[in-house]
Amino acid sequence: MKVRTRISAIIGALGLVGSLAVATATAEPATREGAAQIALTEVASATNPTAGAAGPGGTVWIAERAGTVRVLSDGGLGEPVLDISDETTTDGERGLLGLAFDPDLAHLYISFTDLEGTSTIDEFAVQDGTVQQDTRRTVLTQEQPETNHNGGDIKFGPDGYLYVAFGDGGGGGDPDGNGQKLDTLLGKLLRIDPQGGDPYAIPEDNPFAGDPDARGEIWSYGLRNPWRFSFDAGSGDLLIGDVGQSEWEEIDWAPADSKGGENYGWSQMEGTHPFRGGTEPDNHVPPVHEYDRTGLGCSVTGGYVYRGDTVEDLVGQYVYSDYCDGTLRSLEIENGAVTAENDLGVNGGEVVSFAQDADGELYVLAIGGTVSRVDPA
Ligand SMILES: [Ca+2]
């Protein structure tokens, strides 16, 4: 079956799934009663887009996996404004995997794997909407033992610090137990102050700052492959899409007033289930939502809480998808508990990432190249 073969090939190429599971064809999703009515409007075609961020002048900057950054505006997607394609590869899950602007739009940060596969966060000054190439400096690096589970998403939090997501080091099943180890940056969400030191500073109120047995950069841990995460632009809450091993895909949640230190359980737990005879940690923070692989997909793609204006019924809902399934779904979350799950009735293709513009409108990025905006139906 052609579609199945194509999806399988792409999954193999990007390797986001933890096992060799093959995507199965799914029935057309039905819109549930009460769900917002949305449509996807294709606004651009990119080459393997992996990430996007709101940039200067109402633009959205799109990262392409092979190493280019292009700016999306009303006129479409422009020529590359940054090209590091000779510094990265697309082995396994590698490439240019994330980008973020600081709150003043004064600096652009990119997250990529270098030619040795080392995860690298670099910074550029931005002036008048233009990347100042000669200001480039490396902020943080992390060696990666395998080509998968590199994570790589980066976002500024409402606190003005840079958060960095790294997977567990890959290989399947967390062979080194990195998820629960506090002396490695693998399997973690980090929180750093890139402007506060050289090459960066660790915020004093990080949960493990000053702990000789732990890396001070760690904000939360017990993550397998937190491929995409975001902060709610309205509430400041944190949402993480953590890709499962072979059974459970999960969304993790932390409130805006969290002090950090959350243990999301991997690799003792996969979702709410002990993993391979694992023991649930006393401080385990279970996912706010999980789903198995019997129909909804096989590799969660974390999205954003919708804070735009155009789809009124969607405001406040967390929109996400799955790489293998492509259906857009939303969660309604109150006080850290899901009160409703919605099938939004549209399919974004091989959804690998989302982007949010300065107005809170959402864009869906499919690895095949489609960049679509979430519009009212
Ligand atoms: Ca977990």
TrEMBL record:
Keywords: Signal
Keyword Signal carried by entry: yes
InterPro entries (alphabetical): 6-blade_b-propeller_TolB-like, Glc/Sorbosone_DH, Quinoprot_gluc/sorb_DH_b-prop
Gene3D superfamilies: TolB, C-terminal domain
Transmembrane stretches, start-end: none
Domain of life assignment: Bacteria
Signal peptide: 1-27
Location of the Glucose/Sorbosone dehydrogenase domain: 49-366
Pfam families registered for this protein in UniProt: GSDH
Identification of the protein by name: PQQ-dependent sugar dehydrogenase
